[in-house]
Amino acid sequence: MSQSPPNPPAEDEPLYGGFSRFEVELEFVQSLANPFYLNHLASQKLLSDPAFIEYLKYLQYWNQPPYLRYLTYPGPTLKHLELLQQERFRQEIISPELVQVLASEGQKASIDWHREEKE
After folding, report:
1. At 85, which CATH number?
2. Residue 58 in domain
3. Which of 1, 114, 115, 119 qualifies as a cystine partner to 58, CB 3.0-4.6 A?
4. Is the pLDDT of residue 115 over 70?
């Protein structure tokens, strides 16, 4: 994809369903933190679609400032975006076992983070 990353929304920017390109891409990339959503994408065969794979490559700009600061859950979002760059992961995320492992890891990380915050 030759498009450049969007800038945070400006007042005169065209809207897509009432949202700026920036907002649409932010919402989508954050949804990648959910392993059950990744499984859904795989079940819809999107993770084997070359155009979708290119889109996932393009979304890697979220790893960089200033975009990184807009992510609510940067850890799992960026981890899963990175894993989605690998063909093997895109094939294996259809497995309910892998989805459960990722979900459990996310829960554990959240619990650990809250414990550390209280200390």
Report:
1. 1.10.10.1340
2. yes
3. 1
4. no
**Total domain count, the chain:** 1
Q: Give the separation between CA 75 and CA 34, rounded to whole angstroms.
A: 11
| 15, part of any domain | no
Q: How many residues does the chain have?
A: 119
pLDDT at 73: 87
Flag whether 13 is in a domain.
no
**pLDDT of 8-61, one tens digit each?**
767 778 888 989 999 999 999 999 999 999 999 999 999 999 999 999 999 999
34 lies in some domain: yes
Residue 58, both tokens: 């393009």
Q: Report the C-alpha gap between 15 and 76 in whole angstroms.
A: 28
Fill in the amino acid letter for 80: H
Residue 20 three-state SS: coil
